[in-house]
Amino acid sequence: MFIAQGFKNENSFASYLFGSFLLFVAANIGSIPLVMVTAIYSHYSGRPMPTGMDGFATYFDSNLYLALMLLSFVFVLGALYLILKKSHNQNMLSITTSRPKVDWSRVLFSFTIWAAFLIISVTGAYFLSPEEYVLNFKPIPFLILVVVALLLIPIQTSVEELVFRGYLMQGFGNLSGNKWFPLLMTTLIFGGMHYWNPEVSRVGNLIMLEYLAVGLFLGVITLMDEGLELALGFHAANNIFGALLITADWTAFQTDSVLKSVSEPTYGLTDVLLLFITYPVLLYIFSKRYSWTNWKEKLTGKITANNTSNSI
After folding, report:
1. What's the rounded Cα separation, in Å, for the pair 171 and 4?
2. Helix, coil or strand: residue 268
3. Is residue 311 in a domain?
């Protein structure tokens, strides 16, 4: 059982709280290169330092900003490895999957399904309402973006999954002894951390439903599939193709993408209804391919200690 792989005598909930604090510290240390480069640029350009994340995103070249912003996740990944080894007597595999090794076919399947959906959706939206987009494609910046996206975005998305659906899922499981509480808490925390995204201030709080829905969906497929593989593929496809295909002045990722939205951002009932169609359809596809059964037990049942853990 995936969530039970963190059940060890030394894994008190307090150790997970302390580990989460160390991950927060690592993320802040990882942001130092971005601050330093910004300070150097400010000194030589004469421009004042930006005061918020929106300002950082547009302060200099978007590809350089993206690379520096994503660099912090490398620090978090290193910290997570050390925390697991020193504090929890576990390895990375134990918070990734219940299988003997990572099933990369699952990662690829999930990645392909969601990448195809995004490509079709963006292409369809462009041809249905071309006046809402401008062609933003510039060959050299786009090629640099491709390199940055393929190298660093998978690290970012993998770290988020390892922390939320892996480390914290097991931590809250240790606290509660059941599965619904970890699913609920990781959904709320994951959604809540997106509250400070620029999209929320421009579109309104209703868009928080999307972040919560994504967090819930990723938690469900993790518990049903006994591992992070499907969540890893989905999250990587979402952020990679989100960065490559389309950008806007009000999004968290402002990139040298193919298209740029110039329409006034909105989020309404139609968008909410799409959530209740898209993710259930994906759940149906995954459940049929991987023969998921016993949904109630896997999502809400009690956790029993796992004697065949991947920990070391």
Report:
1. 10
2. coil
3. no
For the chain, state the CA radius of gyration: 20
The token duo for 202 is: 């421009």
Sorting pLDDT into bands at 50, 70 and 90, what band is 309?
Answer: very low
Residue 94 domain flag: yes
DSSP-assigned letters across all residues of 35-81:
HHHHHHHHHHH-PPPPSSHHHHHTTS-HHHHHHHHHHHHHHHHHHHH
Query: Does a structural domain hold residue 286?
Result: yes
Burial class (CB in 10 A: 0-12, 13-18, 19+), 272: middle
Mapping DSSP to helix (H, G, I), strand (E, B) and coil, where does residue 97 land? strand
Q: Is residue 190, in this structure, part of any structural domain at all?
A: yes
State the residue range of the domain holding 93. 2-300
Bridge partners for 134 per DSSP: 260
Axis crossing angle, helix 13-30 with helix 32-45, rounded to the nearest 10: 20
**Which of 223, 246, 242 has the alpha carbon at shortest distance from 234?**
242
Three-state SS letters, 105-168: HHHHHHHHHHHHHHHHHHHHHHHHCHHHEEECCCHHHHHHHHHHHHHHHHHHHHHHHHHHHHHH
Tell me the per-residue pLDDT of 151-168, one tens digit each, with 9 for 90 and over. 999 999 999 999 999 999
Interior CA angle at 245 toward 242 and 247, to 5°? 70
Confidence band, pLDDT 50/70/90 cuts, at residue 19: very high
3-state secondary structure of 182: helix
CA separation for the pair 310, 100 (Å, rounded): 7
